[in-house]
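Let us walk through a complete example step by step. Step one is to write down the protein sequence. Step two is to encode the small molecule, flavin-adenine dinucleotide, as a SMILES string so that its atoms and bonds are unambiguous. Step three, shown after the inputs, is the structure prediction itself.
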Amino acid sequence: MTARVLFIGGGVSTLVAVKRLREGPPELQDKIKLTIINKDEWHYMPPLFADFALGEVTEDQLKAPVANIAKRYGTDLVIDEVVDIDPQKQVVKTKGGKSLEYDYLFIGSGVRYAPEVVPGLERYGYHNYTLEGAKKMREALKQYKGGRVVMLVPELPFRCGCYPFEMVGRLLYFARRKDPKAEVYLVTSFDEKQMKQMFKDVYRQFRKLHRKMGIVYKAGKEVKEVKEKQIVFKDGETLDYSLLIYVPPVRPPKFVEGHPEFICPNNKKVLVTTFPEFRHPKYSNIFIPTDAAMPCVNFPIAGIFVHAAAIAAADALISDLVGVRATVTFPDEIMAVADFGPTGMLVTFDIDHEKPAQKMYASQQSPMIKFMKLAFYLGWIDALK
Ligand SMILES: Cc1cc2nc3c(=O)[nH]c(=O)nc-3n(C[C@H](O)[C@H](O)[C@H](O)COP(=O)(O)OP(=O)(O)OC[C@H]3O[C@@H](n4cnc5c(N)ncnc54)[C@H](O)[C@@H]3O)c2cc1C
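Step three: the predicted structure of the complex.
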């Protein structure tokens, strides 16, 4: 019997899982029929949205047609948006009115951004978390003449743990070319004690670098509302800005609304999943190795974790279908590459499989590292052209 495997999303998680399945044992290939459903025609490398906003890459360099993934890895492709799941009947419903049946489902829909939860954020701030957002931010950066730039992180968890710490360095570099007196502030809802807990040794290394660069931290500040050129905090304090860049709050995808069993019990802002096979705890034929589920197993929202999770989930499916079990289900160490503007850092996450949990440390600092990061992302997209 052929198993119908349906992938929601044509992003990083799906590409990695599909590739892993197609690299699996030859006897697997007759047993699976793969279908990807993606809401638009593009596979993006989201970290490159930041490089695009800063004017360092073109639109063509950060995206490739999802159809190329389908062609290369022998999958069917549906361009449509998933609006509901029925896990009992094993069917997903789309905006275009389709019902797609599956035997196995992979949820790879990334995260849903919810900037509306902070009044004024969308109206007055800019972000580079979507291509549309990055286009507006690129324009705002072009118009920027000088003054205080604020990078605001209004909520935990957020997409890509290192991003705001990297971006403040890149923004300072950018802003000082226009205004030698420009200031850059990093404003976070979490305080420095929480930063230490989250980032462990790397916090000390970020902090040292940022102090040297003159980046100002305002941590533990809950935002009440954003006004034109001013942030109002819940404690009554205000902060003026010339340019506001923000990290959007995240919420579970709309298609799980009405299905509480898809929400993480310990964190209602994210999807449920389990470690180390990234299956739904109740529906063992549903895998959830995507951004929106990483905090449910104590990992940060980041592509490096999604990459490892998608491989672990694909390996679990291979084991279900042909009995070949991968010897390593999830790596002991995961490496990240960070770009701070003037320099880069090689950050390693030491994985504790028992809890699960992770501890970060930065093992190397060099300008070369930021170019490794850019080369990796550009190569990822180029390989799909
Ligand atoms: C600015 C920025 C910087 C980042 N920096 C880093 C970094 O330095 N290191 C790192 O490891 N990670 C980084 N990330 C995070 C990384 O991009 C994600 O972890 C990774 O893309 C997650 O893969 P995914 O497949 O879960 O989601 P995505 O790659 O976002 O793919 C989700 C796909 O699902 C589709 N989709 C969504 N909803 C639906 C629906 N209802 N129906 C159909 N299709 C749908 C989307 O169109 C998209 O194609 C960064 C992200 C951003 C935005």
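Step four is interpretation. The domain at 3-112+250-327 is CATH 3.50.50.60 (FAD/NAD(P)-binding domain).
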